[in-house]
């Protein structure tokens, strides 16, 4: 691949063998594709032609980076531009000149929140005796013990399904009167209603959901082979109803060329089809099964809990699945800007290798590293992200941490876009979670320090500028003016999206 001299990002060849599945569909212009390879249509599930999306996505991310660089270039003198182009980037320069301390991680994953600690946070009536921010801090630092069913208790609080400042009785009442009843009300829009269940658009949704569910997390015991569930002990009529209204076929085990199914896979499909009726504008989008299946496992097959936890997850991640790809474009653009500020050398390398589209990070962000870590590590990662302890977009710092962990290899040996793409794809199941989370925390704290230092310096510059005007008005001479101009530091301009990374709590 020849390196482009343009600052714009060139899209990878559609014949590239290393594109991750979600992105390959963006560059195969002859095919009709969806969002999980990247973007199924929402409500009606029509698969849209993506011929124009690859160029739009890559160009948008590149253009955002170009605009950001031009804004910064306008604030820098030529000598400072030369300095920025050296190995000493903006972040390193500010850190060295301001003597900013290197932050330390607070993570203690070897001492997770266990059942004893969790119970100590509530009184006898179930009312918490610590603030929700303290709970989230401890979950961020320690994680949650995998023993027993503790995650099933904690996750609904993390996601906002259960109110924190309430008693057990108040939560139970709210759950029975609102959440559980509402779930079945939505489900009953299609369950047992033949004219809806067999409608053409619903048939298409059922088929796509069923195909996805049959191949999601099949190594998990609940989804592996034939499972025993409470359905096996139900009445024949209920079992018959379940058989009739399975996701794809009246015959639960009529699999054709698909992987075999079982009752838990059917329950998972029921949750996703019900979400399709709950979120009518978006509907089901391929990739959602990747997000829902771990929740179903943690909730031990509880449909209602799974559904409402999934709703809260989608409230956070809905932007990832928008039909126009605007949510993913914005996140990739923000990550690109974050790299340019935190590691200018790596940014320039991506620019030289036509990799500023960051397609190799696409799957990481789309489904929050679901396919990059073993199942148990995915659970640990997600519960840290859901705390929103430092940032509502902490996943971008996780992505940056992964890139920083491999920056030497990328800078020294990977000189083509395809090489970077292949290398990042092959990181799947090789990334060490705890060190990555610790580095992500340090990167966030460093970024926060950087922003605070920029703002402090900007505040100092303004009075100095006013002083210059007074001196000029007093005709005190041009030497002082030139001296002050040289002494005045030029600071990078941070976009609203970058500053938005400092927003925490939902």
UniProtKB/TrEMBL annotation:
GO molecular function, one term: GTPase activator activity
Region named Disordered: 1-51, 63-86, 465-491
Keyword Nucleus attributed: no
InterPro entries tied to this protein: Rab-GAP-TBC_dom, Rab-GAP_TBC_sf
Domain spans labelled Rab-GAP TBC: 145-389
Pfam families reported in the protein's UniProt record: RabGAP-TBC (PF00566)
Comp. bias (Low complexity): 9-18
Assigned keywords, A-Z: GTPase activation
Record keyword Protein transport present: no
UniProt biased composition (Basic and acidic residues): 32-51, 63-73
PANTHER family in the cross-refs: SMALL G PROTEIN SIGNALING MODULATOR 2-RELATED (PTHR22957:SF502), TBC1 DOMAIN FAMILY MEMBER GTPASE-ACTIVATING PROTEIN (PTHR22957)
The protein's name in its UniProt record: Rab-GAP TBC domain-containing protein
Organism: Rhodofomes roseus
